[in-house]
Design goal:
Layout lengths: L11 H24 L4 H49 L7
């Protein structure tokens, strides 16, 4: 018997909510940095810092996702090997 895990997929509403939430957060930070009463150098530094943090978050999310997917592939290969071994094994075969 094979216990294959159910593949979970996000709904379109969940995806839209995540994209909208990210857009609102990024816009709020951009407006906050723009409205900040500081010199142009300080605002530029904060803007570059936010962009760096954003790209780092995307990279981290991709690395975590890739590691999880690699673990699932290894698990599937091991499962297939075990199923093949069990299918080929004859418990009534004489030694």
């Amino acid at each position: 018997m094979s216990d294959t895990p159910v593949k979970q997929q996000n709904t379109a509403a969940y995806y839209a909510q995540a994209v909208i939430s990210f857009g609102i957060a990024l816009a709020a930070v951009a407006i906050g940095v723009h409205q900040l009463e500081a010199s142009a150098w300080v605002r530029a530094f904060l803007a570059v810092s936010v962009l760096y943090l954003t790209t780092s978050a995307f990279t981290l999310a991709k690395v975590v996702r890739d590691r999880q997917e690699a673990g699932q592939i290894v698990s599937r290969v091991d499962q297939a090997r075990l199923e093949k071994l069990l299918a080929e094994h004859d418990p009534f075969q004489k030694l």
